[in-house]
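Final report, closing paragraph on structural work. Over the funding period we assembled a curated collection of sequence-structure pairs, and we close with a single example.
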Amino acid sequence: MNRRKAIGGILAFTGIGVASFAGYNFFSANSNANRGQLKNHESLIAELVDVIIPPTDTPGAKEAKVQEYIIDFMESCSSNKEYNNFYNGLNDLQESCVSDYETNFEACTASQKIEVLEILNVNSDDDSILAKIDNKIRGRSFFNILKTLTIEGYCTSEIGATQLLTYVPVPVVYNAITTVTPTQKAWATR
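Its predicted structure, as stored:
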């Protein structure tokens, strides 16, 4: 037997073994083993959305029940990769609050909650090419998913559409060009 062929065969066998192990780990990490667990974190998600869109002269995201929208969306419509990123992000957030403030997120003060979310926002706002590649491979980050679904859920809720945005269910006249005053609200319909 030729020594080069033997070494090449050993390297090929090793490469196939490593690739198989990496593939197994990748697909087992994307399993749906955690599906159905977000309902246990409803109070945490409610506090998170309340910090992102707090109540002012209009009700906040918590009053609009955006947390229920997020749970329903993640349970029903998200990929396994994004679901696991979101679920693991919730657990990591709780662990970091316990280690930093010796209490869970729900019991933190308002300034501590804002500080935690600002740190997550800084860590998730990277527009480099490496961040885009990472998003393609591992999916969106926990905070990116949370922000997107909070805004989407609030603007499509009855409270958000009627009290924050201007909602006209049946417009009487179509005006292609309209003037917008500086204090006018945005439109909820297109």
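Residues 66 and 153 are 5 Å apart (CA to CA). The chain is about 60% helix and 0% strand. We thank the funder for supporting this effort.
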